[in-house]
Amino acid sequence: MNDQIQPDGSDAYEGAHEYDHGALGDAEYAEFMELAAEEGFDIEDVEGAIEAAGHGPLPVLAVVGRPNVGKSTLVNRMIGRREAVVEDRPGVTRDRVTYEAEWAGRRFKVVDTGGWEQDVLGIDASVAAQAEYAIEAADAVVFVVDAKVGATDTDEAVVRLLRKAGKPVVLCANKVDGPSGEADAAYLWNLGLGEPHPVSALHGRGTGDMLDAVLEVLPNAPEQSFGTAIGGPRRIALIGRPNVGKSSLLNKVAGEERVVVNEMAGTTRDPVDEMIELGGKTWKFVDTAGIRKRVHLQQGADYYASLRTAAAVEKAEVAVVLIDASENISVQDQRIITMAVEAGRAMVIAYNKWDTLDEERRYYLEREIETELGQVVWAPRVNVSARTGRHMEKLVPAIETALAGWETRVPTGRLNAFLGELVSAHPHPVRGGKQPRILFGTQAGTKPPRFVLFASGFIEAGYRRFIERRLREEFGFEGTPIHISVRVREKRGAKKK
Fold it and tell me: pTM to 2 decimals?
C-alpha cells in the first residue's frame, strides 16, 4: 500500500485512521521540522503531507437515489472533475466508488452509489442493498431526486431507509435548470426530509448552496467505528468464500451452537455478532456471509449479503480470512484478502479443514501459498479444523500478534536512523542521470501504520516496496498492512507564490 504525494499534494492518501500530533513530543517535533527546513522543504508542505497521511478518518458523504437522477454528474460537480462515468441511461454506475472532495476548506469523502440492471436484480433488493450499505457507512447522505419527474415509489422506499438509519440527510432536487423548475422542487417538501435544495448538477446551478448545507450536517471528524471503549472487546470479522467453515469456526470457539451451520453454501446472510470468551479475554466475533463473486454480478439476497459483509469488515479491527485448505486457492480468496488489506485491517489467515489434507495436498498447498499469496506473507497463519477444534488455541495469539503490529509506532529518531543506514547501503537506482534520495521520514499514524517519506525526487514503486520489506524486517509489523507516502521536494525557486 503505497502512495506518491506530488508537490501540489493532489494525490494525498485518503482514509487514514489516526494521527496523534503530540506523539512526536514537542522537542522531537521541533527537531523534525528543523531537519525539514535544512533539506529545503516548506514547513507548510511538510505539515500538510503528515496531516494528509495521518489525519483522522475523513467524514463520508453518500450520494444515493434511484438510477438516472444525476448522482454521478453531481459527484463530478462536487469533486471538480469528470471522474465518475456519466451516461444518459440508468445503471451505468454499478459499484460504489469513493472520491475525495473539498468545499470551503473542509475535506470529505464522497461515495457515488450505483443503480442496478433490472433484469439481474429486483428493484426492491437492489435499492435496499446499495442504499442501505452506503447509508450505514456514511456520516451524512445527499438524497438526489429528479425534480422534473417528482417523487416516485422508489424514492419513497429510499426515504424509509433514510429514516430508519437516522443519518443527517440533505435533499437535492436535481435537474432544476432555471427559476421555473424551482416550483417542481418545492413539491419535494412532501417527502418529509426538510428543505429540497434546487440544483442543476449539469450546469452547477445551486450546488454551492447545497454543499453549504452538507457542511452543516457533516462532522469534522467522524467517530471511530472501533476501539472507542477502553478495555472493550476487540472486533474480529470472519470472512471468506461460502462454505469454508466460518460459522463452524465461530461455533467451535464459542463452545456451543451459536449460528446455523449447513452444508448448503450461503446459509449465513447477515453478519452475526457474538461475544465470546477465548484465551482469557472477551472478543466480539462477527460471522459474515460468504462473498461469492463480483458484487454487481450477484442477485438479490447474495448481493445484499456481500455488501453487509463489506460493512462488517469496515467496522472490524482484525479480519480473520478463512481459506478451504482442501481446495485450490482461488481468485476469489485473493480478492477477499485484498478487500481486507484495502480496508486497512489487521489480518490473520486461517487454513480450515486441515485435518482432511494428505501429505500430497499439503505439499501443493504450500506451493500455492508461495505463488498466490506472496503479497501477504506478513499475515500470521494458523492451520485449523473448525470441525474437530484442531489448533484453535493458536487463533487468539495470532489475532493478538496482528493487533500489536497494527498499533505499532516507530519513534521518528529511530526511523530516520534506519532510513539513513538503508539509503547508504542500498541507494535508489539512477534514472535519467539522477539518483533520488530518501532524506527523512516520520510515522504519521497507526491502525494501520502509515509513513511519510520526504525525498529529493520521484521514488519508484519497486524501491518503495523494498523500503516496506525492510521496515517489516526491522520493526516487525506482523499482521498489518503498511501505507507509505512519498513527498517530493520542490525545486528551489519553483515554489508557488
Answer: 0.65
Q: Is 68 annotated as a binding residue?
A: yes
Annotation-wise, does 291 bind a ligand?
A: yes
Q: Is 431 flagged in the annotation as binding?
A: no
| Cα three-residue angle 194-136-56, rounded to 5 degrees | 100
User: Residue 67, annotated ligand binder?
Assistant: yes
Whole-Å CA distances, 386 to 223, 254, 285: 35, 11, 15
Closest CA to 116 of 135, 134, 94: 94
383 is in an annotated binding site: no
User: Does 155 count as an annotated binding residue?
Assistant: no
Whichever domain contains 84, its CATH number is: 3.40.50.300
Q: The CATH number of the domain where 426 resides is what?
A: 3.30.300.20
176 is in an annotated binding site: yes
Residues 6+ apart with CB under 8 A from 187: 147, 150, 151
List, for residues 110-157, the tens digit of each pLDDT value.
Answer: 887 765 433 334 555 555 565 677 777 788 999 999 999 998 888 888
Instruction: Confirm whether 27 is domain-assigned.
Output: yes
Instruction: For residue range 315-369, list pLDDT tens digits in order.
Output: 789 999 999 999 999 888 888 898 889 888 999 999 999 999 999 999 999 999 9
For the chain, the domain total comes to 3
26 is in an annotated binding site: no
354, part of any domain: yes
- Asked if residue 246 belongs to a known ligand binding site, the reply is yes
**Does 44 lie in the same domain as 148?**
no
**Are 82 and 99 in a shared domain?**
yes
Range of the domain at 79: 60-217
Task: Tell whether 72 is in a known binding site.
Answer: yes
The annotation status of 48 as a binding-site residue, yes or no, is no
